[in-house]
Amino acid sequence: MIVCLCHRVSDRDIHRAVADGTHNFEHLQDRTRVASNCGNCLDCAQMVFEEACADHGVGAAPAACAGGCGGCARGAAATAPAPWVPVARQAA
Ligand code: FES
Description:
Elements: E1 2-4, E2 9-10, H1 11-19, H2 25-32, H3 42-55, H4 73-79
Antiparallel strand pairs: 1-2
Helix pairs in contact: 1-3
Bound molecules: FE2/S2 (inorganic) cluster.
């Protein structure tokens, strides 16, 4: 079954992505581009994704990633310490 008409993403594609280790809906979108154009497929895509996670025995990570856990590239970037920048001396 085609889930996303815009990007021709099928339920099989979603199951395959989950089997290959994609356990976050945003990562699924990065990988397949599902629900990233018109958005009409979003509800169906999320439902198929959750079913796929259940079928593969993994819990789906929250769809909305706050980026603070460090568990992915986005989170790692968010939790990385800011580079040290010297404060410019003020003229007396
Ligand atoms: S049908 Fe999936 S983004 Fe349009």
